[in-house]
């Protein structure tokens, strides 16, 4: 299978959309308060999907594990760090 990410420099992976904080500068606070049904559906990215993405990335690509979720809440973080290059 050929690599599909040729020339890629950096990707952002949101390992989990869950967050245990309530930071004043985060736009997510407003979304959570106005749309509680969205907050109820926060979840974790499937470990095997993350692993598969990692297998397709060429060496040297920066992978950032943050976005709207707190990456330290990801239940497979230890396994994920082992799979990372």
Automatic annotation (TrEMBL):
CDD domains registered for this protein in UniProt: Radical_SAM (cd01335)
- Regions annotated as coiled coil: none
Which InterPro entries does the entry link to? Aldolase_TIM (IPR013785), rSAM_sf (IPR058240)
Name of the protein in its database record: Radical SAM core domain-containing protein
Q: Which organism is the protein's source?
A: marine sediment metagenome
Q: What is the lineage of its organism?
A: unclassified sequences, metagenomes, ecological metagenomes
